[in-house]
Each structure stands twice: as structure tokens, then as C-alpha cells.
């Protein structure tokens, strides 16, 4: 009987030991340390304070059994050290079903780190960069070069170049370049800017059309080799420039050699005639000047001595086909548009426009624009940009409500005609429009302006003037009525 009782006690203590470790594994409600803490600790089992509640029949062998079992737990070298505290075993309630309740009393130690990290200080808000939309949204931008024939690499590799004749940058966002037949139609993307006196390059399909220059924007749509009418409009829908006429072929350029069509100083067009430097998608030279100043006029010297060479018989100068034969040293600023009839708002709201035919800014200070009868008589003040316009409004700057005047003047134009002269600061006549016998163009009923057709031809020639076509116009009068004219912009003819 005694042996049986001893056997039952051994089984009970074995169960208690297993129960203790199961509780240590799955609970941390008292000390925050479970079995994994024991397994991964450096605790010395001899240092454990294992005490057993009073029981008259218990002996030291049981305590030693627990210590021996703890010694067998592998050491995994954690950083918990021997801060496990003491284990207290409660007395046996039943010799058959002992209940072991381990209680871990933590010793003083380092407080655990919080799992939530302190909030980071937010980065300072960066200073916003000025947007292109803060720039001028309109100005004198012209279609300057057209490669309607494409390049040697591909006839589909067409490109178009714009030029800004202003002395300030212009935001091209939402500007439109479109053909009258609907293709191409280019809507300029946001933040597209053309620099003062700079160029903006449009390449068709991809940026490899011109392999040596970056495109300002890529577009789609084919230019007809038979000719197009292209219109450039700003974001307000005002027509800024027009190239080509319905039913007409391109005025310059060639499919043979893929030669581009370049704008000249007088607003006309010529073939590229320079030494090429840009290259196409296949590395071939482009007969054009994408993103650069247009080619200058070249001349060919032909000998009268036959094909064998120069026999000393003299020579003749022949302009290159399509070339600009004008002399920009003698032709500078001209009288370009006259609103002698005023506007729909008031017949007194007259205005005049000058045009700079050169590729450089000119100072007009001290120049005189006057009528032979003495009125108006305007002493000019200010500058006019390359290929730019100089707008004079009578009495105030509301004559044309949405275009700024370069200068205000006084003095009425006679509706029956005037003889106008433009003289430089030295008194030299630079241009004249002798129409004292009657204006050759303009309409008093429709209030349509009188426009110069070719700045390089005489201003006294009646055939060199026409009435605004009523379609190409860009501004409003003081009452908001559309003006049948192009003040500050390219003429309709």
C-alpha cells in the first residue's frame, strides 16, 4: 500500500511539472514572461527561488525534481538574463489531480520600449515654383518654318517651327495651330513656353524626326504636299498668324531634296538655302534650320565664258530660287495698317500700325510719323521687336480694348485721304503712303481697316493695299465689338 501511494505521488508531481511548463508557455498574465522567455534566457536554475506551500508529507526530492527539469531547458542566449523571479507552487489539492499555479514575480528592470514610435515632424512645405501660366498669354508669335515635305529619312517626318518676336516669354498653353481642312490640329499642352526671341519646335509622331534637336511638342496629322492654310491662335481664340491660302500650293519648299519653307524678313517665304547642320532620324542632313535662325540669302555667280570656267567675260548675280532678295539694311520699319475710319464704337477711335521688317529690335525714339497737312504729327518713343508691330491708338488705350498700345497720339485722319510719312531720328524718310487723293482701301461702313500686302513693296502703290477680309481679326473696340482689322498682329492678306 505504501509503495502504491508513493507511485501515485510521483505521477502527481510529474503531472504538476508538465502543467507548470504548459502554463508558462501560454500565459503571461502575471509577469509578462512565458516559456519562450525561459527557453531563450540565460537563467541559472540554481538561482530560481522555488518554494512549495506547506505540506507535511512533501520532501526535498520534489523541489530537486523541478530544478533538474529546468536545467534541461536549452539556453538560446537571449537578453532576458536571470530576471525571471521566483516560482511558487501551490499545495496539492488532491494526490491524484494536483494543481500547480506558477506565479512569476518580476524583479526591477528596464521598462519595455513602446511599440508605437513618436510622430515624425512633417517636412516643411516647399516654396511653389512660379508656373508658366503667370507669363504673358499672347504676343507676336509667327509660323517661321515648315517642313511639309518631311525629311530624307521619311516623308512622314514633318515638322513646324514657331518664332517669338517679342522681348518677353509667352505661355503657349491652350494655343492652337490648325489647318483649315482639320488636320493637323495641334493644341499646345500646359506649361509650354516660347522664350523671348526664341523658337518652338513641333515634330510629327515622335522626337526622332529631328535627331539633333529636342521637340517642344509632338503632334499628329499630315500636311498636304499640295498646300494648306494654317492658322495660329492664342488661348483666347485670337488669330495670331496665318500661312497659305485655300486652293494655293505651298509658296516655298520642295519635295526634291526635302527642302524646308522659311519665313523671310518681309513676311514672305523662301526655300532653305544655307549649309545644313541638323540631322534626321537616319543621320542625314536636314535642308532646314529647325530651332535656329533661318538661312540667309545666297547668290550664285554664273560665268559668261562657258562651262569650262571663268574666261573673264564678267558675271551676273542671280538670286537663289525662292530666296529673299530684299536688303534689310535699307528696308526697316513701314506703315503697315491704317484704321482711318475708326471703329464701330466711334469714328474718332482711329489707330495705325507700324511693322519692323528686320530680325533685330529697333529703337524708334525720335522718329516722326506725320501727315503732310500737319495732323496727326507723332514723335515716336520706344522700341519695336524683330518682325514686330508698333501700335498707335488715338486719344487713349481703350480704342482697342484688348491690345495694349505702344503709344497714344492725337490728331484726326481725314476720311478723304492723307499723305503719311515715316522719318527716322535723323530726318530720313523710311516709308510713305501718299494717298492725299483718297484712301485705296478700308471701309467706312464696316469699319474695316486698310492693310499693307507686302512690306517690301512701295507704300505709295495703291495695289499694295487691301481691305481687311473680315475673317482674320483679333481684337475688340472700346464697346466690345469685334474690330475688322489685325492691330498688333499679322495682316489678313
CATH top level assignment of the largest domain: Mainly Beta
Mean pLDDT, to the nearest integer, reads: 76
Structural class: mainly beta
- Terminal CA distance: 132 Å
CATH architect. name of the largest domain: Sandwich
Shape: globular
Instruction: Write down the CATH topology of the largest domain.
Output: Immunoglobulin-like
What composes the largest sheet? 6 strands, mixed
Q: How many helices?
A: 3
Question: Overview of this structure, please?
Answer:
- This protein has helices spanning 2-26, 35-39, 60-71; strands spanning 49-52, 86-89, 141-147, 159-164, 170-171, 176-179, 185-187, 193-194, 199-204, 217-219, 230-233, 239-243, 261-263, 269-271, 299-303, 315-319, 333-339, 351-356, 362-363, 368-371, 377-379, 383-384, 389-394, 407-409, 418-423, 429-435, 450-452, 465-467.
- By secondary structure, it is mainly beta.
- The chain folds into three domains: 2-89, no CATH class; 131-305 and 315-325, Immunoglobulin-like; 333-467, Immunoglobulin-like, CATH 2.60.40.
- The strands form eight sheets. Strands 10-9-4-3-13-14 form a six-stranded mixed beta sheet, with no helix packed on it. It has a six-stranded mixed beta sheet with strand order 24-23-18-17-27-28, with no helix packed on it.
- A hairpin with a 5-residue loop joins strand 20 (368-371) and strand 21.
- The radius of gyration is 47 Å and the shape is globular.
- The N and C termini lie far apart (132 Å).
